[in-house]
Amino acid sequence: MKIIESPIKGVFEIYPKKWQDNRGYFFESYRADILQESGIDEEWLQENQSFSKKGIVRGLHFQNNPFSQAKLVRVLSGTVLDVAVDLRKGSETFGKAFVKELNSEEANMLYIPAGFAHGFSVLEDAVFSYKCSNYFNKESEGGILWNDPELNIDWGVDSPVLSEKDQYWPTLKEFKEKSGGGL
Ligand SMILES: Cc1cn([C@H]2C[C@H](O)[C@@H](COP(=O)(O)OP(=O)(O)O[C@H]3O[C@@H](C)C(=O)[C@@H](O)[C@H]3O)O2)c(=O)[nH]c1=O
C-alpha cells in the first residue's frame, strides 16, 4: 500500500498493492496500521455506498461541527473525478480544491480529513464506497455550489445532472462570510 500526501496538507492518495493471477486479483482495501503510519488515525463509524450513472455530479458536501466527517473514499466499479475542497478555518490552502481520478482498475482511494467539502463527478457508471468518521446528521448538512466561480473546478462532464439540493448551495464566498472563515 502506497500512501502519498497531496499538495493539500492532510489529504492523502492511497494506492493498494494489487496481486493479479489467473483467478483474478486480490488487494488489501483497508489497513489501519499502515494508515496510522501516515498519521491517518480515525475511528470509522459509518460506511456508505452509492451508484451513479455517467454524467452525475454529487456534492460539494460536508457536515458542520460537531458532526464533521473525515472520509476514506474509493470506487468499487467505474471511474469518478473526486474533489476535496479545503474549508478548514485558518488553513493556508483554504478554498483550494484537490481533484483526483479514482477508478476500480487502480483501486486508488483518497483520505479526506474533517473540514473539507467533498464531491465527485462520474466519468463511467460508478459504485462509490466510503467510510466516515462520524454518523450522518441531517440537520448539520452543508454544501458549496459545485460550479462555484472562484473554485472553477473542471468536472470533466458535459451538462452534469445534480440532485435538487445540490443546485442551490452557497458559493465559497457566501460560505466564508456566513461561517466566520471556515469550519
Ligand atoms: C449521506 C447520507 C444520506 N442519507 C439519505 C438522505 C437522502 O434521503 C438520501 C440521499 O442523500 P444525498 O442526496 O445527500 O446523497 P449524496 O448526494 O450521495 O450525499 C453524499 O455525497 C457525497 C459527495 C459525500 O461526500 C457524502 O458525505 C454525502 O454527502 O440518503 C442517509 O440516510 N445517510 C447518509 O449518510
Low-confidence stretches: none
For the record, what is the CATH homologous superfamily label? Jelly Rolls
Number of helices: 2
The CATH architecture can be given as Sandwich
**Could you say which small molecules are bound to this protein?**
dtdp-4-keto-L-rhamnose
Distance between the ends: 31 Å
SSE-based structural type: mainly beta
Q: Share of helix among residues?
A: under 10%
Number of DSSP E strands: 11
Mean pLDDT reading: 98
Q: Largest sheet at a glance?
A: 9 strands, antiparallel
Number of spatially distinct domains: 1
**What is the string of SSEs from the N terminus onward?**
EEEEHEEEEEEEH
In the CATH hierarchy, the third-tier topology is known as: Jelly Rolls
CATH class: Mainly Beta
Strand content: 35-45%
Principal-axis shape equals: globular
Rg over CA atoms, rounded to whole Å, is 16 Å
EC number: 5.1.3.13
Subunit structure: Homodimer.
Pathway: Carbohydrate biosynthesis; dTDP-L-rhamnose biosynthesis
Keywords: Isomerase
